[in-house]
Amino acid sequence: MQIFEIDLNHRFNDRLAVSLDFPLGSVDVEISAEGIHQIRIGTGRRPELTDALPNWLQPLVEFLRQWPDAPVPKNLPLVGKPTAWQLAVWERLIKIPGAETRSYGEIAREMGRPTAVRAVARACATNDWCLLIPCHRVLGANGAMVGFRWGIEWKAKLLRMEQLASSRG
Fold first, then answer.
1. Catalytic residue among 135, 158, 159, 161
2. What Å distances lie between residue 77 and 30, 52, 57, CA to CA?
3. Do both 88 and 42 map to the same domain?
4. b vs e for 62-94, b when ≥16 Cβ sit within 10 Å of the residue's Cβ?
């Protein structure tokens, strides 16, 4: 059984807004024939039963359903126009293990650009694929919950869920 909703009223240039089941509610995924354009959390939409999703989306459906215990699926068709810098930052984010965090400054230093803290923060803020690229694992220099596109409350919830999953083992 698949739990999701295809909302034809939210069509954007042949894109569909799909609401998928997630342990903390639902996740909206904007898709087209090309792939996944965006993943948004905290929208409050309610998933419904339907069988109209493309087969290539099934790994994402399973990942979201089992998050944070499931590994990130490989080779999902993500659609966007990131810069080389954004891609480099996102590659660093993907390498942060679940339930662990880094500061924006640590990532900048790891990339050999210690003064590029704001550029790292900007790359995190422009990440359209929440959960697949774990920008919620990046904190302020003093460990503060700062700078999350979907709100600090969501950042805290996601990190708490990952820490609980990690402690289970």
1. 135
2. 12, 18, 9
3. no
4. ebbbebbeeebeeeeebbeebeeebeebbebbe
Domain containing residue 100? 84-168
Whether 47 contacts 5, CB under 8 Å: yes
Give this prediction's pTM: 0.87
Q: Residue 123: inside a domain, yes or no?
A: yes
Residue 79 lies in a domain: no
State the Cα–Cα distance between residues 15 and 164, nearest whole angstrom.
Answer: 35
**How many distinct structural domains can be found in the chain?**
2
Which residue stretches of the chain are H helix? 58-66, 84-94, 104-110, 117-125, 152-168
- Tell me which H or E stretch contains 37: strand 36-41
User: What digits encode the pLDDT tens for the residues 56-96?
Assistant: 899 999 999 999 999 999 889 999 999 999 999 999 999 99
Structural contact between residues 144 and 102, judged by C-beta atoms closer than 8 angstroms: no
Residues 2 and 50 sit within 8 Å (Cβ to Cβ) = yes
Residue 18 amino acid letter? V
124 labelled catalytic = no
**Looking at the structure, do residues 49 and 15 belong to the same domain, yes or no?**
yes
